[in-house]
Amino acid sequence: MSKDWKEIFLSSGLPLEHDVRQTLEELNISHPSEYKYERLNENGIPITFSTDIFGQKEYDSKLKLNIFIECKYRHDNTKWVFTPDRYEFFYCEFCETFTSLDILSTYKLNYGRFNNQEYSLCYKGVELLRDNSNPKAIKEGIQQLKFAVIDNLIHSLDIQLASFGYKTPIFVLVPIIVTTAELWRIKEGLSINDIRQAKNIEEVAEQKDIVILRETPDNELNRFTREKFKEIFNEEKIRKFNQPLATSMYGRFEHYVDWVANNYPSMYVILNYATFKSKMSNLINFFGSFDMVKTKE
After folding, report:
1. Distant-in-sequence, close-in-space partners of 68: CB < 8 Å, separation ≥ 6
2. pTM higher than 0.90, yes or no?
3. Nearest Cα to 141, choosing from 36, 9, 269?
4. At 133, phi and psi to the nearest 5?
């Protein structure tokens, strides 16, 4: 018996994308749309890729919040199960969920506002279906996001550099996967024997509305980042960029490129669709807080 037309249509992911776009518009994100970028294939030929949805929220010309979303529709009872990770000071902090570009900005973020660690950090995840598992599902979502984030990051730096010294806004980039799958995080301290002896998933895992997945850049993304910097920043731009870098932790342009290539993006927000609107509203309001942005001294 063939599938019902509704199930086929829902499985295409188009209705989920449509709902997410509508929700963003309701939250005053204007014209959310597909984000396209180019990558070279193994033969050096540029190929166009895309992320489902890109939206931007501007706060009084001081901060621009760039949101990247991949939509993953899944059938009922599909579970995404994640292994736990921990936030650590100076190694993996909650604030790193948001890729913040303020080195060229007139303003700086109040990082003291980022001490909320209520969102569970995860290390790896797998999709559990009725009869088997799909280890590629979550990785595919991350793959589609990470190159788009880097492409936009470097273009955002170029925009900042062009207006450097003239009330240049901060850019904050947030990669998000929205899914209809259930989100589960394995309880900390469990062994494989605990899982073998469990009769149901509730004994070994906690269901979540949102998790933060940590995945540092691989060699492919690292190369893409460095090539993109070379493409956008010529010698004149590099000399201008080195002015603010001279008094920063980076020192020089090449050190900043190293830092970006090795660290951005490393954290991804994964949301269950049922709570998408409320979580996005919280995110937008968070960056709109009166004390979020300060003028550099």
Report:
1. 35, 51, 53, 54, 145, 148, 149, 152, 173, 174, 175, 176
2. yes
3. 269
4. -120, 160
Q: pLDDT tens across 13-63, in order? A: 999 999 999 999 999 998 899 999 998 877 788 899 999 999 999 998 899
DSSP 88: B
Dig out the tokens for 62 from the structure: 């001081």
Whether the Cβ atoms of residue 80 and residue 127 lie closer than 8 Å to each other: yes
- 242-270 burial, b at 16+ Cβ within 10 Å, e below that, comes to eebbeeeebeebeebbeebbeebbbbbbb
Residue 252 tokens, joined:
């020089």
Written as six digits, the tokens of 289 are: 């807080």
pLDDT (tens digit per residue) in 66-86: 999 999 999 999 999 999 998
State phi, psi for 80 to the nearest 5 degrees. -105, 115
| CA pair distance 251, 247, nearest whole angstrom | 6
